[in-house]
């Protein structure tokens, strides 16, 4: 072995040992900090409620974080992250981002910082989170019992498939269907997972506008997407316009927000305005908005009260969205029960039909 090879070998060994030493010296808490869990939806609502009350009482952002730290209303891991955000000079919206709030909420708070009505925005965010919690609670309440029943039924079917069905034979449709139900269920689950994975991969490469347009074409889901996005954008545009922010400034503001869809719409609208399109005409280009939003914008511009009109319209659409969502949750239980009833009928048919056939043969 030459001298050069020996030196290179020793150098590689030394660098490898150095890497191990540096890795062992790493602060494990730093890694855990990146993986620290986000605030639950219930706690997010509580934080927004506390911020709103403290803002109303005249607390500054620093005072609020100190108060939350001393009062132990939030765990130390969350208040430490808030303190760190303050030291880095981050505003309230970015601080909420550190706590795991959604882009929707972060964008609303960032815009509230611009139009100045942060207390009102926090109140509406609190209402939005409260409605989400209510819908989630209803879904859990409605779906829990039927899903437990369905699970027991699947176990019974597996037992029947292995112990009873081989004795009955496969001479009728019900027997064959029950024998293959577990396979059919697993196949459907696999198909759903594959399509979900394909959609997830594709949507990562597409613009948010194209993804939103695609979602509106999905049966049942599309109407909810339209209602949600219409209510959301009508509220934010209404808040900004009410504070005297001009349209050309609004699109610039939109281009600097965290939400990708918000940014893309901002850039696209700017191009539309430069080409001579009016606000209400440009809104019609987006199929993920209700067509009546364009009419409301045109009507508001005629009356010179666009901000107020959009704000009122947004409140109505939010109410419609959550009412429709609550109504949809009530359909979950009947649908599952109907499915369970059909399976029970098939089980009885699978057991009784062979008996009747044997009786006919004997007679």
UniProtKB/TrEMBL annotation:
It is a multi-pass membrane protein. Belongs to the GSP F family. It comes from Streptococcus agalactiae MRI Z1-216. Keywords: Cell membrane, Membrane, Transmembrane, Transmembrane helix. The keyword Nucleotide-binding does not apply. The keyword Acetylation does not apply. Its main location: membrane. It is found in: Cell membrane. It comes from the Bacteria. The chain crosses the membrane at residues 142-164, 184-202, 214-234, 331-353. One of its GO terms (cellular component) is plasma membrane. This is Competence protein CglB. NCBIfam families: T4P_ComGB. Pfam families: T2SSF. Residues 49-166, 234-354 form the Type II secretion system protein GspF domain.
């Amino acid at each position: 072995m030459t001298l050069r090879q020996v030196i290179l070998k020793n150098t590689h060994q030394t660098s490898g040992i150095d890497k191990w030493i540096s890795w062992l010296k790493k602060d494990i808490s730093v890694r855990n900090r990146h993986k620290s869990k986000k605030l639950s939806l219930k706690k997010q609502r509580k934080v927004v409620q506390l911020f709103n009350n403290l803002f109303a009482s005249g607390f500054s952002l620093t005072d609020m974080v100190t108060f939350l730290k001393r009062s132990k209303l939030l765990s130390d891991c969350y208040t430490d992250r808030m303190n760190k955000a303050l030291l880095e000079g981050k505003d309230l919206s970015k601080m909420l981002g550190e706590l795991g709030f959604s882009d929707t909420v972060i964008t609303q708070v960032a815009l509230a910082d611009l139009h100045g009505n942060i207390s009102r925005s926090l109140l509406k965010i609190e209402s939005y989170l409260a409605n989400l919690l209510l819908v989630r609670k209803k879904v859990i309440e409605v779906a829990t019992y039927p899903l437990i029943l369905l699970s027991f039924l699947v176990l019974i079917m597996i037992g029947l498939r292995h112990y009873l069905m081989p004795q009955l034979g496969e001479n009728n449709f019900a027997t064959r269907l029950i024998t293959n139900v577990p396979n059919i269920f697993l196949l459907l689950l696999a198909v759903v997972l594959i399509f979900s994975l394909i959609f997830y991969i594709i949507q990562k490469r597409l613009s948010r506008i194209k993804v939103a347009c695609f979602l509106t074409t999905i049966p049942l889901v599309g109407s909810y997407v339209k209602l949600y996005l219409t209510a959301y954008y009508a509220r934010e545009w209404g808040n900004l316009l009410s504070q005297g922010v001009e349209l050309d400034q609004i699109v610039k503001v939109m281009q600097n927000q965290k939400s990708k869809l918000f940014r893309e719409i901002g850039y696209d609208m700017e191009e539309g305005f430069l080409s001579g399109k009016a606000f209400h005409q440009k809104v019609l280009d987006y199929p993920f908005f209700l067509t009546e939003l364009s009419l409301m914008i045109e009507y508001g511009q005629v009356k010179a009260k666009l901000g107020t009109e959009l704000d009122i319209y947004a409140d109505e659409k939010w109410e419609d969205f959550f009412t429709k969502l609550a109504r949809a949750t009530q359909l979950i239980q009947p649908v599952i029960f109907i499915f369970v009833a059909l399976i029970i009928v098939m089980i009885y048919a699978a057991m009784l039909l062979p008996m009747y056939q044997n009786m006919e043969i004997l007679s």
